[in-house]
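Field reference: "sequence" (input) and "structure" (output). Example, Hexosyltransferase:
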Amino acid sequence: RISHRVKSLFNGLERLTDTLASSGQQRSAAVAGRHRDRIVLVIPLSGRSETFMRFLRNYEEVALRQDGATDLLVSMYVEPVETPMIVALLDNLRARYPTARINYLQLYGNFSRGVALDRAIKSPHCDLNDILFLIDVDMVFTVESLDRIRFNVIRHRQIYLPIVFSEYDPRAPSTILAPGWTSATTERPKPAIEPADRPRNFSVPYRITNENGYFRQFGYGLVGIYKADLMRPDLKGFSTDINGWGLEDVKFLENVIALNQRGNQRLQAIADGRWDPFEPAANGPASSSVPPPPSEELAIFRAPDPSLVHIFHPIHCDTSLDEAQYKMCLGTKANTIGSYDMLHDRFIHSQPLLMFARRQSQSRGGG
């Protein structure tokens, strides 16, 4: 009798599995067949033509050949040497895909990521109905990344800030013990031959392990949002008074949070009876401390996305940066050295590194 029940249970599980698989296939077919809003990849750029070549290979393979509904908008600062090469790459891609929307803006002056994004967002190259995905040149992505963007960005309701996987320095295991690594500059010596940026198949998922990298929980630079929501006057867009990289993403996130807090204050005023939302607008709120009725709030959705990978590149933190930007840069640089296990293994087996750590501790008054 027991064996009969077990057999019946397994038969039921098989039928359930078949049903779920069938429904999943039907859902995938339905998603593939329905109208998809266009995504515009907005990328701020300053030089880095070789890295941009990798990005364009990724974009061509995934967005143009597979997805077919993802545009590209490059907001580049003009540099005498690299800009002509970047423009030539874009013109070549446009010639091979004449129906694709591949556009670029040329900016002048000192680089500012906030300004580059602001100019791109306000340009005629993207429509109010487009999903803007603000991305960096160091990222690689798959078609699953684009599917998640469309699924997680909801017009007038939700924006998407994916938690990307950030690659550790692949040279760290061989260079962390190299002579000069513990010098005051903290700049690691470069190997005699830099590894070539070999072409890769971007449809194959990047290998995600604790040794390869980490999910950058405190990075907010990649954002998916409808242009119609980004242009809302109460959101205030991106700060254009910040030079260089960094901090503009944090300021933007703070703007979204402030927008939602105003909405929460409005709901609290209604609950406390300080404001009747059904009264004529001319009467206004019962208290001047109650904010005016805002439009829809924008929920912030965050989740790790293993298909979005930030490829390692050496980080140089300019001492002329604003203090907050400089500290953020140093933090990111430290995080990308390598995994805790690798660092622990190197330190406990290296007398010079242990002595260096002791000297650093003593210099800070740690005894």
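Residues 19-31, 179-196, 282-288, 290-294 have pLDDT under 50 and may be disordered.
The chain has eleven helices and eleven strands.
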